[in-house]
Amino acid sequence: MVRQTQNTLGDVAKAAGVSLATASRVLNGTASVGAALRDRVVRAAERLAYSPNAHAQALARSSSRTVGVICHDVGDPYFAGIARGVMRAANRHDLQVVLGSTFHDPDREVAYTSMMRGHRVRAMLLIGSGFEDRQRQEGLRRELDRYRATGGRVAVLSRHRGLRADAVLPENREGAADLARALLGLGHRRFAVLSGPPLLTTVVDRVGGFLEALAEAGVTVEREDIVEGPFTRDGGYEAAQRLIRRGLRVTCVFASTDVMAAGALAALREHGIGVPGDISLAGFDDIPTIRDLTPPLTTVALPLEDLGERALELTMLPERAGRARVEKARGRVVLRESTAPFSGA
């Protein structure tokens, strides 16, 4: 009888053209290497059907009391609100939370995933938008598949292409469409949009939903009135400055996140443009601070802490073979004093 020989870590290292130590650190998630080298080692391991020994797998399945949370920017009130919900749920389960910020860098997202896999966290949460980048999302998928193979649980919050993970999905497209219809109901027909980076699925959904609802009412937004900027207060400020320098031809500005709207409000105020007297302004998320702005901001309210709790709870449920769980959360339009009816030409 022919006995099949299992490939070793040394075989993987040789196939990838790296040292044994480097191959070990890459596959254990403890190496700080470039994406190309990491991908070469991982592909070699997959090609050779390499699997770690039973002892290593037993360690990976140990009862860790740690949950890894990967978000874009914990300093953003949107993510801070969600993180509070995660921590509240983690406290109920006597779990500790380790938090990492990617700052919207997809390579850093993969690196954090690899690192947390190496630390054998019990569950991993990806909080925030996925990326409209198939190649990078494929790298993330492979990393998460390796983590799940050791017994780890994964949940995502927001839309991530092709990850096949349990998910809590804010209905960004639908919420933005609801907001557009509400603003149309106030009489507005000339709009500008402050868009975040188009690489993010959240931006694609929010801007797309807003524009589609306007189009259904026969209203179009000129390309030059859609201004991109970072998903930050300063990004909103600079985007609004560009609109103002070109000459405002609109009656209402939609910022695809509240922090951008806060920056836009500061820019408008600096130029003596009244809100809502001269122009209406709306955002998305309903972070706590916008209620204290002058004027308070019209927005689409998402239950941020509840979203975080629901994502963590998904990882506590038994894994369901063959099909991911998906929980959706619809936003609610909240009209405040930053928008006013428009009846002019």
Automatic annotation (TrEMBL):
MF terms from GO for this chain are: DNA-binding transcription factor activity; transcription cis-regulatory region binding
Query: Which keywords appear in this protein's UniProt record, sorted alphabetically?
Result: DNA-binding, Transcription, Transcription regulation
User: Record's SUPFAM superfamilies?
Assistant: lambda repressor-like DNA-binding domains, Periplasmic binding protein-like I
What start-end ranges are recorded for coiled-coil regions in this protein? none
Quote the InterPro entries the UniProt record gives: HTH_LacI, LacI/GalR-like_sensor, Lambda_DNA-bd_dom_sf, Peripla_BP_I
| Residue ranges of domain HTH lacI-type in the record | 8-61
Pfam families registered for this protein in UniProt: LacI (PF00356), Peripla_BP_3 (PF13377)
Name of the molecule in the record: LacI family transcriptional regulator
In its UniProt entry, the species of origin is given as Amycolatopsis decaplanina DSM 44594
